[in-house]
Design a protein that fits this description.
Layout (H helix, E strand, L loop, with lengths): L6 H11 L4 E4 L4 E3 H11 L9 E4 L4 H12 L4 E4 L5 H11 L3 E4 L13 E4 H4 L21 E7 L7 E6 H11 L10 E4 L8 H4 L4 E4 L2 H5 L1 H11 L3 E4 L1 H10 L12 E4 L6 H10 L4 E8 L3 E7 L11 E3 L6 E5 L12 E6 L12 H7 E6 L2 E14 L5 E6 L3 E4 L2 E4 H8 L7 E8 L5 E8 L2 H11 L4 E4 L2 H7 L11 E4 L27 H6 L2 H10 L19 H15 L5 H6 L2 H9 L7 H4 L4 E5 L4 H13 L5 E6 L6 H11 L7 E5 L11 H10 E6 L10 H22 L2 E7 L23 H15 L4 E6 L1 E3 L9 H12 L1 E3 L4 E5 H10 L6 E5 L5 E2 L9 E3 L1 H7 L4 H9 L13 H11 L9 H10 L7
Parallel strand pairs: 1-10, 3-4, 3-5, 4-7, 5-6, 9-10, 9-11, 11-12, 12-13, 24-26, 27-28, 27-30, 28-29, 30-31, 31-32, 32-36, 33-35, 34-38
Antiparallel strand pairs: 1-2, 7-8, 13-14, 15-20, 16-17, 17-19, 18-19, 19-20, 21-22, 23-24, 25-26, 35-37
Helix pairs in contact: 1-2, 2-3, 10-11, 17-18, 17-20, 22-28, 24-25, 25-26
Length: 933
């Protein structure tokens, strides 16, 4: 393939022709074509010459720049979705032999293997020149070379990697230009389901506009996205578009630049076409039939289609493909007769699945038809071809289903399901649920013993049942969310087609939605009633202590729920709350039913402000402060809304720490909310009372990517610093020794910067330290290692987890070394520090380590990797440790002169007294209470 007869050359030419136009844009960043060319030239240094690469991150301008560079260089890439389980990401990387990963957003700790070279493309995209030093030249590629690889997560977590060839991409792009042409005036909306669509318009100088997740989930935000970027085209699955349109007003949506919508991934209904015509009357609607294994197949304009005029066609296949419909005996069906859809076309069919010979042989079939040898791709769809050659898709057949654009391998799903419930036969199927869209249903048969066991384990009775929340929860540990069935239907027997001898899918019963019991609904909370409507179940089926998500609801249901709740409660409802907050708690939050004191009357006594009081450290600081403060002073505690009411949680902590509740004043708010969510008089009253702030809250999570943890930390510390400034209060900030590596040193009691391999937790703390240093607030920045309580271990601490695993297997990893300090001593230090006028750093990390010599006799010493392989850890814990095994040999040392001096002034003892590794080992490695049952 030479000249402009391949995609790399076409994009390279567009970089020159349109250098002053915007190529990629998101909510924060815009990159012009000339700047994109400069970025591509920069990335060449890091691009391998032979192997495929991976690009990690949600779609964004930086992500788009990275994948475009891969295409221009002729280097096949695979997208790594941050939402995939860590094990799935690693499986994809191993399957493809990936050595280089470009990340458009920081990965979470343990999310990507250390064995790969990782490069931050967002950093490389800073300060781009308007044009590169020399024109970018597209790579010379062969027709069968791979342009990109689509990796599905797989129903059981094992990836299926689908290579797409250069020639199939080029031919499909050229063919579709006749139907959906692009030019410099086009602005194409893009998100994770449609990233493969971005290269078509980039060839022609169009702008790719990346949507954020909340903009896709909220119909009103989606319309704002269209307005903000003047989007002219966007691709949707029918389910996603139908859900958005249903939630929008019945009147036409005006003022949007949208000109066409492309539907892909599911069968298109007449109702959806009518909804688009009513609400977006000026938009042209296209029905696209495409499959990764064949790239594009067919497209047709359905804008003017009349309702009830027969099945919706996906159009006539492109010239490079021929539709072949086979019956159950692999005989060609005559026109109009439904059968199993296959396609023939040597230039379009891919080579098969990487390292999956059995799956390739199953789906890419070599047959002899009518005396001619052919290679066909089995689409997994049922359909037919009419006299004009148009293809009609009726739905999926048994071995693969499509739900909201996701592929579900049914045989793998059935095998996985067998670990949870007993059955003889099971048939997964997708059905429309009376106005609530499509749902995954498992139809199954079981004998008496299996049925009795299912009833004992999961309360599965006869007939139809929405999947119990407990079963849904455990299945989510092994399966992607879209593979969790919404309903289980027990049948006496699976219906069999009289001719084919296979399951008669048309005879599978429909789901009958439970009617809302008017009497029960009268006594139920609005959140329960609306959730029951959304999920199609009765009020009595729902548990107010569980969330929509925990009871089998999905993201599309959450959108419908939040819109209903916004109308009922007359206030904005956060998407994450609608999906994840327990329904009873959600009502309390929205209705503000909790009785809390008036802020301006409750804040009258002098005292300190404490954050993170419900945490492991914060609760001990609460106890230390109650002992140290004058009797007339109080502790103001900031506690955010969660599963339990803030008042209940504060009282429980007070009881556990033997603190008089009268010494405590609750601020039912959040540190990432301006003024902690207080009104002006209440905030003013609080400011006048507080003399010092101890900030123990950690707005971080090791399972969340670095960018989000840094954003959370930045927001929280900004609010805290503003409060300290307003109150004239000093700040004691609990930072972490994670601002330095686990090995090396001595590290100073001074400012630091993000280092290679820094975790999201460490990076967030470094960001917070920098903000404090840049402020005028007098502050003590106290860097802490892991903390222990001999009597009550912190089950979330990594070293407590490791020690528990060591006890369970009676073995430790070779060279096992780490540092922990007594949480009570840290609490005393934070409370006892005098209020300073300036800023100081304290490395509260004495040179007191748990070492191999301290481990009691009788414990086996295993090679590190052997211990990690065999240790009784969750997969998340194992992946976290494997991502940086230095945590098992954490022997870093620190300068701690300032901490030593301050500790001596407070206690009169050496800093080493704050840690007792011998006592820790004696308690953790000999106590039978620590052994796993």
């Amino acid at each position: 393939m030479t000249a402009l007869s391949n995609v790399p050359a076409q994009i390279a030419q567009a970089l020159q022709n349109h250098h002053d136009l915007i190529a990629l844009t998101d909510v924060n960043t815009s990159i012009r074509y000339g700047q994109l060319a400069d970025f591509i030239e920069r990335l060449q240094t890091y691009m391998p010459t032979a192997a495929p690469v991976a690009v990690f991150g949600k779609p964004s301008a930086a992500f788009g720049a990275a994948v475009t560079a891969c295409v221009v260089f002729g280097r096949p890439f695979v997208h790594l979705d941050p939402a995939m389980p860590h094990d799935v990401l690693r499986n994809i990387i191993d399957e493809l032999g990936i050595g280089v990963i470009f990340h458009a957003e920081p990965p979470a700790t343990g999310q990507l293997p250390q064995s790969c070279a990782c490069f931050d493309v967002a950093a490389l995209a800073q300060n781009l020149n308007d044009q590169p030093a020399r024109p970018v030249v597209g790579a010379q590629v062969a027709p069968d070379d791979i342009i990109y690889i689509v990796a599905t997560s797989g129903t059981t977590g094992k990836p299926k990697c689908i290579p797409v060839t250069q020639t199939s991409a080029f031919l499909s792009y050229e063919w579709r230009d006749a139907y959906t042409p692009y030019g410099p005036d086009d602005r194409v909306g893009c998100y994770i389901f449609a990233i493969w669509e971005m290269f078509r318009p980039l060839r022609k100088g169009a702008t790719i506009c990346f949507a954020q997740f909340n903009e896709l989930m909220s119909p009103l935000d989606l319309v704002k996205f269209w307005h903000r970027h003047a989007v002219t085209e966007m691709l949707f699955t029918p389910s996603a578009l139908e859900n958005a349109l249903q939630a929008l007003p019945a009147t036409a949506i005006t003022g949007v630049a949208l000109q066409r919508i492309i539907l892909n991934g599911e069968v298109v209904s007449d109702d959806l076409i009518a909804a688009v015509h009513a609400k977006l009357p000026h938009v042209k609607l296209w029905n696209l039939y495409s499959i990764c294994e064949t790239h594009d197949i067919a497209i047709t304009d359905v804008t003017q289609r009349q309702s009830n005029s027969g099945p919706v066609s996906v159009g006539v296949p492109m010239p490079h493909l021929r539709a072949v419909v086979l019956d159950d005996s692999d005989q060609v069906c005559p026109e109009g007769q439904p059968g199993l859809l296959h396609f023939e076309g040597p230039q379009m069919l891919g080579p098969g699945y990487i390292n999956r010979p059995d799956e390739t042989a199953l789906r890419f079939r070599n047959l002899t038809l009518q005396g001619r040898g052919v290679r066909l791709y089995d689409t997994g769809d049922q359909g037919y071809v009419d006299a004009q050659g148009a293809v009609f898709v009726m739905g999926r057949i048994a071995h693969m289903l499509k739900l909201r654009g996701h592929s579900i391998q049914t045989r793998e799903l059935v095998e996985t399901l067998r670990a949870y419930i007993g059955f003889g036969q099971a048939v997964p199927w997708i059905k429309d649920i009376a106005g609530r869209g499509k749902a995954l249903i498992i139809y199954y048969s079981s004998d008496a013993d299996q049925a009795a066991q299912n009833d004992r384990n999961w309360a599965l009775g006869t007939g139809q049942i929405r999947i119990p929340s407990a079963l849904s929860k455990v299945m989510r540990k092994d399966l992607p969310a879209y593979c969790i069935p919404s309903y289980l239907v027990r049948l006496d027997e699976i219906p069999i087609h009289a001719v084919s001898g296979k399951c008669d899918f048309k005879s599978l019963p429909d789901i009958t939605l439970a009617q809302i019991d008017d009497h029960a609904a009268l006594d139920a909370l609005p959140t329960i009633v609306q959730c029951a409507k959304v999920m199609g179940c009765s009020v009595s089926d729902l548990d107010p202590a569980l969330s929509l998500h925990a009871q089998g609801g999905d993201s599309l249901m959450a959108v419908t729920l939040l819109l209903a709740l916004e109308e009922i409660y007359s206030r904005s409802v956060d998407f994450d709350f609608a999906l994840n907050v327990p329904l009873g708690r959600l009502h309390d939050i929205l209705a503000k039913t909790e009785s809390t004191p008036e802020p301006h009357t409750a804040f009258t006594r002098k005292g300190i402000l404490l954050t993170g009081v419900t945490g492991f450290l914060g609760s001990r600081v609460l106890a230390a402060a109650a002992r140290a403060l004058p009797a007339d002073q109080v502790i103001y505690c900031v506690i955010r809304e969660k599963r339990n009411a803030p008042t209940d949680r504060l009282l429980r902590i007070a009881k556990d720490q033997s603190v008089d509740p009268d010494r405590l004043v609750l601020i039912a708010g959040s540190i990432d909310e301006a003024r902690f969510g207080l009104d002006a008089p209440g905030y003013g009253a609080l400011v006048s009372c507080v003399t010092s702030v101890i900030h123990c809250a950690a707005m971080v999570n090791l399972a969340v990517d670095r960018r989000h943890t840094q954003t959370w930390s930045q927001t929280g510390i900004t609010i805290i610093l503003q409060f300290c400034d307003d109150a004239g209060a000093d700040l004691r900030f609990t930072s972490s020794s994670a601002v330095f590596p686990d090995t090396g040193g001595p590290y100073p009691e001074a400012r630091t910067t993000v280092f290679d391999g820094s975790s999201g937790y460490g990076a967030a703390k470094i960001e917070a330290e920098a903000q404090i240093s840049a402020s005028n607030v007098p502050a003590a920045i106290v860097r802490l290692p892991s903390l222990y309580d001999l009597a009550a271990p912190n089950a979330k601490d990594i070293y407590e987890i490791i020690m528990k695993a060591c006890m369970a297997m009676n073995a430790v990893p070779e060279g096992f070394t780490f540092r922990m300090v007594d949480v009570h001593e840290v609490a005393n230090f934070l409370v006892g520090l005098p209020a300073g006028k300036g800023q100081a750093f304290y490395n509260f990390a004495p040179d007191a380590f748990v070492t191999p010599e301290m481990i009691p006799a009788g414990f086996a010493v295993l090679p590190l990797q052997t211990w990690l392989r065999d240790a009784p850890l969750s997969e998340a814990e194992r992946a976290l440790i494997a991502s940086d095994t230095s945590v098992l040999r954490a022997a870093s040392c620190f300068d701690h002169g300032a901490a030593q001096t301050a500790w001596g002034q407070i206690t009169g003892t050496p800093l080493a007294a704050a840690a007792d590794p011998q006592a820790l080992v004696a308690r953790r490695f000999t106590s039978s209470s620590q052994r796993s049952p």
